[in-house]
Fold this sequence. Notes:
CATH architecture of the domain at 3-82 and 139-347: Alpha-Beta Barrel
Mean pLDDT: 89
Strand content: 25-35%
Largest sheet: 11 strands, mixed
Bound molecules: zinc ion
Oligomer: single chain
Shape: globular
Amino acid sequence: MNRREFMGSIAALAALTGCQSGATGLAFGKRRKRWYKGNLHTHTLWSDGNAFPEEAVAWYKSRGYNFLGLSDHNMFQDDPDSWVAALEDGEAAFKPEWAKKPTRRYIFTAKRRYFDDYLTAFPEAMTRTGASGRLEARLSTFDELSARFNSPGEFLLLPDVEATRKVVYSDGREHQLHMNYVNLPLLLPSYSAPEYRRVVRDVPICRFLGDHAKETAELARAMDRPHLFILNHPIWSWYDVGPEAIVENPSVRFFEVCNNGSPFKSAEGLPSDGFDTDRIWDVANAFRMRRGQPLLYGIGTDDTHNFRGEPCEMLMPGNAWSLVRAESLDVASIISAMAAGDFVTCEGLEPDDVSFDSSAGTLTVSAPAGLSVRTVRFIVTKRDFAEAPVRKVSVRPERHKDAMTYQREISVYDEKIGMVAKSVRFRPGEPVRASYTLADDDLYVRARIEECGTTLCRAPLHPQGVRVAWTQPYANAHC
Ligand SMILES: [Zn+2]
Ligand SMILES: [Zn+2]
């Protein structure tokens, strides 16, 4: 989609009072549940996205999404005195005086043509001439956006923040740790403390992750609000969070198995059998099941930064999302359905239905017929897997100018973790329906539905050349 198409879709939506729902009805148990489509990872000009918040929300609402989290970096959109200044072509970014207040931490300027687009679609937006003589526009807050766009049963904005930190190690490595927390409408207290400004040094990622999960959970308890805590893009920017950190933090219940917005350095030197988000997922759940801990669930997000195809057409939104089967479109229902694992993660492909018969241990998935071959793979981990890594591999992207920053040690685990236990192919035009019944020695099962075809997500190390839908893992009740 180019800029003109983007503008067209936003302009059409600006006058819209409702939208077509992407949710589908489904009888489930005694109460009728529906699938709700949502993206919980989006950036706007509140941090480093390239759309004003109304444009971002309009983009998703006009395409039938039912819920959306605007997860700006280290920022909740609550300060009504937040502004963006216009930059003329060729003018370098700068930091206006008003942007030095601690609530603003990212960018404070945007291209003049972004303002033109925005003010055409939303002419009532508040603007002023700043001290430097530049046009400035005020950023709408979460409350203002909710009042404008929420519509019962159709669309809901959720409070969302991406807590973002970097840890620097004395051997030259750097690891990024990014985590979204949903439904807590404020910045974590530790991010407001003076220590926040200091570089984080030599803290093990596993402890740093645990500290964030704990702080978020305590905040949710104190505020008496349900919440989600999500480990984002563990393999950005270069295998920064391994499964071991997730195993050590059983309170982390969600991670991004698919993130559409995280271009990756390279796959140079990485072990193909030990390295992708599916692999991380299975290693984490193998250990969790053995230890009697709750399963880790995988979500899909756009991590949208680029609404305008600038600087390139890669990583545009609309490629990865979650379908949540909930009783109604409200925060509590969406969060409790996700906490129960009743959702599907989609990268361009959606199932019709997913069901798990816990007494028989049978997982059944169905999907519409595809234009290309569709394959359902059932993935399990065997009860007697070996915990010790098969081997450890030291890697770094040698051709990258900061190779030392990205040196990593990766553990490759037993093949009994994340095995394909059954694979079923469906010809083009043939409806997809497949089942797998847990064997006694399976710890859990999950399914991946795949279709060869156009690659939607072009972020390196995400599934290439296939569309994918991931179910959540379902535990063997006998284990
Ligand atoms: Zn991130
Ligand atoms: Zn992000």
